[in-house]
Amino acid sequence: MDLLIFGPQGAGKGTQAVRIGLEYNVPHIASGDMLRAAIAAGTDLGMRVKAVVESGVLVTDDLMIELIRDRLGADDAADGFVLDGFPRTMAQAEALDAMLDGIGRAIDVALVLQIDDATARDRLLKRAALEGRIDDTPEVIDTRLRTYHDETAPIIEWYRARDRLAPVDGTQDIEGVYAQIRQALDRAAQRSMTAGA
Ligand code: AMP
User: Fold this and answer.
1) pLDDT of 80
2) Is 2-185 assigned to CATH 3.30.460.40?
3) Are residues 184 and 168 in contact, defined by beta-carbon separation less than 8 angstroms?
4) Which residues pair with 82 in a beta bridge?
5) Does 85 sit in the ligand 1 pocket, CB within 6 Å?
């Protein structure tokens, strides 16, 4: 299954995506984790993106598309993936669809974890205290939430129009959110079986 997971920062995407990956046996591909790993390792890519990631704005589409194209070409993604943090702009969504179309695939489900900004901000500030992430300061959190609404939210309509959208109430606890995700994925599996029959 080729899956996407969306939601504002703090919606719990990473936690849920890890579980999905384990249960459905697909790699969890998190664009933010890839960038943070490159920064920590001090690679060329890491040095190029460090200041951008720290300020909470988006890395260029070309760079991200190239990074994800390479990653999706790896053997472990041959039967599916759960993409977390990509696409984040319309240009990225269009590039991803074209990439998949070229190999006869398409996104099966685009999960959207819905939470309001106040809850997101609250959770991110708690995470800042626990994990000390470089971009979890109050100012950067506000920039990231604004970027989500401006740049990323329009993509959700793109998948709604393609009948791939699965909205999930992200304010519930981890188990409650995961239960909704499973229902959405089960429905999608049934739909594709019916379509293939
Ligand atoms: P995340 O961990 O997904 O919140 O990503 C952390 C930061 O990495 C973001 O604030 C952006 O600076 C950068 N980033 C991650 N994914 C993307 C993407 N698909 N497009 C552009 N920038 C990204």
Assistant:
1) 97
2) no
3) yes
4) 3, 28
5) yes
Question: Ligand 1 pocket: which of 28, 59, 65, 127 to mutate (most atoms <8 Å of CB)?
Answer: 59
Domain residue limits, the chain: 2-185
- Contact (Cβ atoms closer than 8 angstroms) between residue 5 and residue 20: yes
pTM for the full predicted model: 0.93
Rounded to 5 degrees, φ, ψ at 153 are -55, -40
DSSP state of 126: H
Query: What's the pLDDT tens digit per position in 112-163?
Result: 999 999 999 999 988 888 887 778 888 999 999 999 999 999 999 999 999 9
Query: Is the separation of the CB atoms in 29 and 107 below 8 Å?
Result: no
- Does 146 participate in catalysis according to the annotation? no
**What is the length of the chain?**
197
Strand order in the sheet with 2-6: 28-30, 81-84, 2-6, 109-114, 165-169
Question: What's the rounded Cα separation, in Å, for the pair 39 and 27?
Answer: 21
Q: Compute the distance from residue 147 Cα to the ligand 1 centre, in Å.
A: 10
Atom nearest to 31 CA in ligand 1: 16
DSSP letters, 69-96, are: HHHHTSGGGTT-EEEES---SHHHHHHH
